[in-house]
Amino acid sequence: MALAVWDILFSAGADDCSQQPSLPDFDDEMKLAEALSIIHSAPVDGPQLRVALLCGFTPLHLETFLRAHLCKLFPDRSPVVQTGLYGDLLGNLQRATDISVAVVVIEWPDLDPRLGLRRLGSWEPSQLPDILAEVTRSCDLLQNAMAALARNIPIVVGFPTLPLVPVSFSRPARASEFALELRSRIALLGAALSHIAGVRIVDPQRLDSLSSFQRQDVNSDLASGFPYTLAHASALAELLAELVVNRHPKKGLITDLDDTVWRGIVGEVGVQGISWDLESQSQIHGLYQQLLRSLVATGTLIAVASKNDRSLVAEAFASREPILREKDVFPFEVHWGPKSESVARILAAWNISADDVVCVDDSTMDLAEIKSRHPAAECLLFPRDNPQEAYELLERLRDLFGKDRISEEDDLRAASLRNRAQLQYDAQQASPEAAADFLRFIDGRLTLNSKKQPLDPRSLELVNKTNQFNLNGRRFQESEWQNWLTAPESVLVAASYRDKYGPLGKIAVIGGDLVNGASNGNSSAKRRLCIRTWVMSCRAFSRLIEYECARWLFAKFDVDELEFDFLPTARNTPMQNFLQQVRNAPAGPHCRLSREQFAETCPAPSHIVEESPNG
Question: Is 485 helix (H, G, I), strand (E, B) or coil?
């Protein structure tokens, strides 16, 4: 079974953001001597991280830089970079086995040898249509090979980064029809691969910003088959390694208002005096709002922490209609108290930790005050007087909150938190007599699906992002997750929920293995479900959904016991409390819950529970 990339990053008890891979620093290119030093100082006894570097050229220094960057991003691992045969990219793809991730680097000779320097062929104008036809055929073959490989492991892909050889009859300053057609073939291949789950493609624009000078080393290419300058190899390897890590996005952004969301201090210039447009030379604030509105649409939580007059802020949103709408923000913390207290209340409302959020403010003093109380929070300064630096902040935020895909749950996240606050308020207002039965009257409906295929990316996302209601804090890399699901005894259950306060979407994932005691020759042994992962979104707390899930597991799989592969972490107290309550004993590794125990400790059913017709 392929090793799990995420296991070491998010091992049990390692929930603090200081143990997660930090954002790469692209300010200084890594030198070859530095790369070798990093590799030599890396641990040799850690779990291996097996990466296949698949290319048609001699990997040489690209392999060195890639391994060094992986060592930096996975400090407790022992990265092992496998390479293939020279000149056989397609075969290397087809032979890739026993790896955690594949890094595929395509250059022009992989599409047609006539586009390289080490193979001689015709560059006559009459041959250009044939080259285009061969490139099209190669793209089709590579697409099929990568699609097949992506069914089992994630793939990071880099498309040609070197200049074209002087094959076209046009002057180099003019974009020839041949060159444009050639690049269109690559664009079509990239578009096709981008729709395949597990494929991550290096952005050419990002690479251009990091490697803007000489990329091709003709001497090296002709002498050894390695076509890159060291500077270009370093920049390319850094981006490839970052996509191997594929960081999880931050969950929420807490923003100031004055001189951040808009230009001006509303308490001084009035509601009509604030601006965020080109005419008022405050366009960068409008672009910031535009980005925040975009983040809302991808499921990012946006809150406001502002030292201000609440009535003026309400008037500004109502009468000026900023791009960031009032309904996009939850909650508003607008008062004259310390912003660290505002952040604490926002985190409580969102039910997430400080390391999941980014705070943006134009005041260094307020950011320092926030950081002193919430050191795990990412605190970023909005440079109100420097549009260039403010624009770079927008790029930084896109990096911190970027996602591979948008799910149905992303659309529901902000609304579900508002609804959760309303549910908690209604529960507190209920009379003592009605409080005990409150959940019975919210029309809760829990839908469970036990179908394992096709792989649902949302299920893996939940497992790899949830911290509080989490059985053991373990994370799974795509290849390990896929391999486990193919085992006949494995069980995967995904739960979706809705009630009168609105839908929550998919909020829980339970995975385990069925063990039949009789198969061990002991007819009296109990049939049990060994649960290796169980997570539930914090948005679903306080609804007793976990009890309904356990009740359904006993009935669906006809087991006598549930065994929990439990490990305590710094943040999974809700799971510990659940196991202790339902077992009437402290939670521990491989603790068990019998059907009889559960019947004695579980509350009465409070929701309608149904099985999905698709599973």
Answer: helix
